[in-house]
What we know:
heterotrimer, A: two-stranded antiparallel sheet, 2 strands, 70% helix, 2% strand, C: five-stranded antiparallel β-sheet, two-stranded parallel sheet, 4 helices, 41% helix, globular
Amino acid sequence: MSKANSPLNDFMNGIWKQNPIFKQVLGTCPTLAVTVSVMNGIAMGLATTFVLFFSSVIISMIKKLIPNQVRIAAYIVVIATFVTIVDIVMKAQFPELSKSLGPFIPLIVVNCIILGRAEAFASKNTVVRSAFDALGMGAGFTLALLVLGGIREILGSNQLLGTVILPATVEPMLIFILPAGAFLTLGILFGTANFFEQRKKENARQKVIEANRASRQVALPVEQQNEGEEA
Amino acid sequence: MDLLIVFLSAAIVNNFVLSYFLGICPFIGVSNKLTSAFSMGLATTFVLVLTAVVTWMINHLILIPAGLDYLQYVSFILVIASLVQFVEMFIKKTSQPLYRALGIYLPLITTNCAILGLALFMALRDYDMMQSIFFGLGAGTGFTLALVIMAGIREELELADIPKPFRGVPITLITAGLLAMAFMGFSGLI
Amino acid sequence: MNTVVKMLLTLLVIGAISGGLLAKIFEWADPQIKLNAQKETERAIFIVHPEGKKQEKVSGTTSDLYKVMDGSGKVIGYALPCKGNGFQGLVKLMMGVTPDLKKITGLTVIEQVETPGLGSEITKEGFTNQFKKVNPDPHIVGKKGAAESPNDIVTITGATISSKAVVKIMNEGLDELRKLKKEGKI
Lengths: 231, 190, 186
């Protein structure tokens, strides 16, 4: 039981099992918008993780003090405050990045991941667990942004992290850094991820069937064997 | 004429969903049935126009004169959350059938990035009050349009033989991509 | 304690702490933000006036205008930051003109969020260099395909709106400068 509740587990949860984008389908707006390049994706991921971490921690700390009816409003104020902090700091220290991410930094306020985690986790768990959960979700989010950003940047502008990596003879497919390309790439990524998940499940299921069959040592007629595999 | 351009730009040429990626969560979540898509679109449009008016007033009558620009995000989102709350209470009191039709979607509108996105773009582009209202109307119309088209397509897709890994979210996203490409054709319109 | 009072109090306290925290952070960051903006403006000024050595804000006017001097202190032109709505958002640019306002010495796009590969081509020299050869009197005109008169510049194929937006912003900037000249401020 302690393993399931360990902070490390809470962290790893956010990376794949409950990946905010691929599993929970939350936070898709900024994902599609900022992944025109890997750099933008990383910056957005880190900014979101920052807000997620501090919001989750603060909300977990004050969860007992907030009356139930105003909890959403209270969470929103906390989240908006940290987003403003990120925005101001970025404008001061990283002006170029701030400009290319544009209005999507303030849109972190309505990133469903943050409010979702606050409501589903931080408001019901300890500060330590909330902290790790936030970091895990943030990391999972950033990873997804990295993958999507990488694909779109390479295919759409022949570059990765700003340096040209494909020869000039390969014409970049502009569509990938345009909105249509974002949808298509994410859709295909989802489909691919589903494909592997389903194949894993199918393989596991097959193993169980084989194990049962072996332990019972029953030889099934051919038609029945085929039926079992298709179902 | 200028107002018409603001409206058309937000509704079609720079469609909030297909060009700016605002409102994707409801777009994926609510677009599987035509009737719910339409209801969500209407409710959102209503909130968008109200938000345009109120946030403009707060921004230009309070925040900017007082030099409190940095409180924009906090105030905007609080306004939006309260507006949605009031709209819900208002509809509940005045029209029961409407409330039943829209009921569950209203609270979801608060986290619809399109609403906050609208407020932020308005502020960024320094629109005046009339432009803001038409911007809100255009954004809402465009959002409803995207949702309704998507719902129509998805209802047809229910009967199609889609490969298993792609059912649900993946095929919706790919369809959205094709829709976005189609909408790109509008860029010469204005 | 009455629940309504408790609700309001909680929100008020959170709001107050939030406001206070933001005010402090803003105070700390504002000088740097202003410095960034200043550096960016200066960089743009010397792009549109490559021979300029010194720049100075023009006083006595509400416009955000800079005069550019060469090594000997002679005024070789003016630089005016201007902005307007492009296709997808705000377009900010820096315009350089000769002291008699008859020629544009340079144009650089400082900020834009136009469509990559199409509207964003307005930042490329192929487009902006046209403005150095055009006759800005009385107005610059954006034409598709080919220039037919000395006032014309050719818009980018597939990015007519972005190109025309730049033309509009330039014309408005020039009008502002002409007004200032009439008032004797420059």
